[in-house]
């Protein structure tokens, strides 16, 4: 259920969330249906490897993925990952919190705008995603189709130096 009364959204490290909560989230078919790179098996060992990989990004790049909380409750994860010279943003929420996506994305984009390393942000979405107006409202524009790890994605770009 998406809170309606000005909820507090906080960004914390994935290591601050119990692995079983993240694993349960990532086993929800409605969450993974648009994730062609999904590893498939989200047991605790796979989840631990996932969190370790995301933490390695923080150590390597000084930035990475967060867990998102709404009024203290874990609602999903996402953040920035360096892909070559680009910073890609991803967001994976629990279905009952999909309504918080725009608010969380805006908060993350504001973070990117304040970070001089991030001149623009990219978004990779599978072609199965049909509701893309949120990206347009953020100011992102379609770059085209790309292949990433053997899967096709729609690539969008948002310049962070634009209001």
Describe it for me?
This protein has a single domain, classed as Gcn5-related N-acetyltransferase (GNAT) (Aminopeptidase), CATH 3.40.630. The protein starts with 8 loop residues before the first strand and ends with a strand. It has 163 residues and is an alpha+beta fold. It has a 7-stranded mixed beta sheet, sandwiched between helices. Strand 6 (141-148) and strand 7 (151-159) form a beta hairpin. It contains 5 helices and 7 strands; from the N terminus they run E-H-H-H-E-E-E-H-E-H-E-E. The protein has helices at 19-25, 29-32, 44-61, 101-113, 133-138, and strands at residues 9-13, 65-70, 73-83, 86-93, 120-125, 141-148, 151-159.
Q: What is the name of the CATH topology?
A: Aminopeptidase
Low-confidence stretches: none
* CATH-defined superfamily: Gcn5-related N-acetyltransferase (GNAT)
Major sheet size, sense and barrel closure? 7 strands, mixed
Beta-strand share of residues:
25-35%
Which bin fits the share of residues in helices? 25-40%
CATH architecture heading: 3-Layer(aba) Sandwich
Task: Characterize the overall form.
Answer: globular
Number of strands: 7
The overall pLDDT average reads 89
Q: Provide a count of the helices.
A: 5
**SSE order, as H and E?**
EHHHEEEHEHEE
N-to-C terminal Cα separation, in Å?
Answer: 31 Å
The helix-and-strand class reads: alpha+beta
Text of the CATH class: Alpha Beta
Strand order of the largest sheet: 1-2-3-4-5-7-6
In total, the number of domains comes to 1
């Amino acid at each position: 259920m998406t809170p309606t009364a000005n909820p507090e959204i906080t960004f914390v490290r994935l290591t601050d969330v119990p692995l079983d909560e993240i694993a349960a989230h990532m086993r929800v078919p409605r969450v993974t249906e648009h994730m062609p790179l999904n590893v498939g098996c989200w047991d605790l060992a796979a989840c631990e490897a996932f969190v370790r990989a995301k933490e390695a990004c923080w150590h390597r790049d000084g930035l990475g993925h967060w867990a998102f909380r709404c009024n203290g409750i874990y609602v999903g994860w996402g953040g920035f990952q360096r892909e070559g010279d680009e910073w890609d943003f991803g967001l994976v929420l629990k279905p009952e919190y999909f309504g918080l996506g725009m608010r969380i994305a805006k908060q993350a984009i504001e973070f990117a705008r304040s970070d001089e390393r991030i001149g623009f942000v990219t978004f990779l979405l599978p072609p199965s995603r049909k509701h893309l107006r949120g990206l347009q409202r953020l100011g992102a524009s379609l770059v085209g189709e790309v292949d990433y790890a053997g899967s096709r994605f729609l690539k969008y770009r948002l310049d962070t130096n634009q209001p």
